[in-house]
Amino acid sequence: MKTGDLQFGDYFYAPSCNKNTIGTVWSLAWRFDNRMAVMLQGKNFRIAFDIEKIKPIKLTADILSRNFRKCEDVNGIHYLFSRTRGCHSQYVGIYEGNNCWLIDAHSGDVRSCYNQVQIKVKYVHELQHALRLAKINKEIEL
To answer: DSSP states of 35-56 as a string?
Structure first.
């Protein structure tokens, strides 16, 4: 991982004694040996790890089905999320691509411009970035 890949609140696997534990990026800091450390916070821990030791969480159909409505049509299976509050609407469409997921996300006032993002993602933190770019505040359940 590189620091440019990280944003506060991103989900990652944190290395532990026996298995990978999920944590969220809480802070970044330089270590005494000029290496970057990532502070991950989980249910029972807040620990710094070498940036090279944390691993991204692969975005799977199972994770998508827990967070988005699953739909099927002539184009195949895709996952949707939409919400409208007054004149403000939010939409996320997720489609299976070639070894990745294709995200189409937008939000904004239905009478004006949208914050639109179209991007290919493979990992949960990339999905989190796409949602943030489109100004969609949706917590991802793992």
So the answer is: -EEEEEE-SS-EEEEETTT-BP
The CA-CA-CA angle for residues 35, 50, 38, to 5°, reads: 95
**Average per-residue pLDDT for the chain:** 83
Predicted confidence at residue 20, as pLDDT, reads 67
Rg of the Cα atoms in the chain: 17
Tokens for 126, please give them: 């990339």
Which are the contacts of 19, defined by CB distance < 8 A and separation ≥ 6?
none
In contact, 25 and 10? CB cutoff 8 Å: yes
For residue 75, the Cα-to-chain-centroid distance in whole angstroms is 24
What average pLDDT does the segment 41-56 reach? 80
For the question of whether the overall pTM of this predicted structure is more than 0.70, the answer is yes
